[in-house]
Amino acid sequence: MGSREHIVMLPYMAHGHLIPFLALARQIQRRTGFTVTIANTKLNIQYLRSSTISTDSISDVRFAELPFCCSDHDLPPNTENTENLPLNKIVNLLHASLSLKDPLLRLVRNIIDQEGRPPLCIISDVFFGWAADVANSVGTANVTFATGGAYGTMAYISLWLNLPHRSTDSDEFALPGFPESYRFHRSQLHQFLRAADGTDIWSRFMQPQISRCLESCGWLCNSVDEIEPLGLQLLRKFLKLPVWTIGPLLPISGNPSSSQSSISRQRAGKEPGLAPEKCLEWLDLQSPDSVLYISFGSQNTIGSSQMRELAIGLEESGKAFIWVIRPPLGFDLKGEFRAEWFPEGFEERTTRESKRGLLVRNWAPQLDILSHRSTGAFLSHCGWNSVLESLSQGVPIIGWPMAAEQAYNSKMLMEEMGLSVELSRGIQSVIVGKEVKRVIELVMDEEGKGEDMRKKAAQVKEQIWSAIRNEGEERGSSVKALDDFVTSILSKRQEEQKTVPEFGYNNLREIID
């Protein structure tokens, strides 16, 4: 019988899910000494391995490849995650993920054969409610891991389960699980959710998977108790399950004042468009809080007319900037960037003549940029990983949500936290340079609203770092939550062992089979 406990983890196939799962696996392993196995498709496992090469010892985070054939699911060749996948094909990947069920079951049974008992639990993504079937069939616990924040996750799951916008002609509507006074808007819904009616291909995946997650024995949430009081209160009430806040799961751990660079840890197979060191050298030349960092995450881009107006407003604002640029919508994301997508002479004027800006193609060392004293604000798509990276460094946000639960993250950052202003919403929206200039100046103003947002962001930064403090007797709320999760799962196993004393686990498996 294996002496150490074993946890199996199953992330959804997107970089924004794989990386928090890896960070959580490391935390569990360091805190407990348990064996942790992350299971996924071959290319995603390769990606995870590449992002661990230069990090400290993770010898006990294991990786298991699950067979997966993208051509069986009408996906482009070598497509095993959402990276560079056209929006209309993402639903194919979701449905394709159901094919991982049997391979996961075989993996878990192999572990039982080797160790004489099931893993302590299976931690699965919120899109993988079917993992509960696998856990039940081998006599272990299933735990759902929401890689987003509590408020955004709560809004997202309630929208998919209830489709409240279908029962009103109004653009504004109440959302089950939220106070009646909270209104959500049709423009905050991703195009596939807006069109969903319960019988469409998206609903047919989302509704059963989320529903099954409500049957797991608890949820882990990549957030911090102190920064999302309302979201957590609503999520716990809705789920009627334990919710353990174990965030923030960032690419590096440690104090923001530490000199340790995260460049090597973040790159993970990404080709930098400019040597990361060059970004930091350029930042060193700028004054404190003077630089706007612009990035829409690894999944998103904007339309060519939006890009042009953003450039116009940016130049008129006179602010220094680092902009991670990708070809606009409708063009090959991996293709060459064309000058015609910008106003004439924009790059020449801003990056060469005035040296006021940096245009970085494809990838930049985001956490290093956000943690630099010169960075004053972040124009972001409000993906939760980016939000946490920004908040952990005390940088206010200009929101431009695009998809998934980003619009609800943006809503919370504005209404609950008061440290963001929304510039635009979605990829169909019309923006004008004048409005871009106004919002940038508002957020980066040394007085008034800009100053207020920076103060609030600094407070949230403090809350985040105290949540993961772990010195002697002093444990932050996120450290306590992780310990509580482990204790709960261990005691659940002990309870279950008492209820089947006459059977060993192998006998139990034979009965199930």
Plain-language structure description:
- With 513 residues, this protein is an alpha/beta fold.
- The protein has 2 domains: 6-151 and 216-247 and 468-512, Glycogen Phosphorylase B (Rossmann fold, 3-Layer(aba) Sandwich); 266-466, Rossmann fold, CATH 3.40.50.2000.
- 44% of the residues lie in helices and 14% in strands.
- The chain contains 20 helices and 17 strands.
- The protein has helices at 15-32, 42-50, 90-96, 101-115, 131-138, 150-162, 191-195, 201-213, 229-239, 263-267, 276-284, 304-317, 346-353, 366-370, 384-392, 406-417, 433-444, 448-467, 477-499, 505-512, and strands spanning 6-10, 35-41, 61-66, 121-125, 141-146, 172-173, 184-185, 219-221, 243-245, 291-295, 320-325, 357-361, 375-380, 397-399, 420-422, 470-471, 474-475.
- Strands 3-2-1-4-5-8-9 form a 7-stranded parallel sheet, with helices on both faces.
- Helix 6 (150-162) packs across helix 9.
- The two termini are 21 Å apart.
- Residues 253-267 and 501-513 have low confidence and may be disordered.
